[in-house]
Specification:
Blueprint: H1 2-10, H2 17-28, H3 37-46, H4 51-75, H5 77-87, H6 94-101, H7 105-114, H8 119-128, H9 133-158, H10 163-191
Helix pairs in contact: 2-4, 3-4, 3-9, 4-5, 4-8, 4-9, 5-8, 7-8, 7-9, 7-10, 9-10
Amino acid sequence: MRRLYDWTMAQADSRNALWVLALISFIEASAFPIPPDVLMIPMVLAAPHRAWLIALVATVASVLGGLLGYGIGFFAFEALGQPILEFFGKADKMAEFNATFNDAGFWAVLIAGVTPFPFKVITIMSGWTAMPLATFLTTAMVARALRFFVVAGLLRAFGAPIRDFIERYLGLVFTAFIALLVGGFLLLRYIG
């Protein structure tokens, strides 16, 4: 795993970095274990003027990769999706997850799209539970854009000093934000 991580980091300096970012963002949404941020962060630090382009490439490729994950869950869950979920230790949760997933599918995709939770698990489960494709795509686009554009914006505005914060705490900040957002909606639901 360390060699794979080192290879990913080394790609940030290559002249094909955007293509490698697109590839990693695409396959991370369905199978790859290393998130695109690992490559995106050094790319934005090296070329802050390209921050929005880098975030856009990561977003589009990740959503397209999410469609692959959705397809794995929908068309090939037993052959491909289940082994991937087993690899990430999520296979035992499938039955209970399926029962409530589509009721909270929007939130599941949003949460996985912006937090450190593996996005690939949600993309595969979205297909497996036959979540409406429009709901999946819309939420995946919002979530991934939010994640990648916030990272790009922070790096563009603050440079290298913000890198440690992003790597250590941004996932926690996103998780807290989503928890507050969900809590607010639940509160409004019960008050109204």
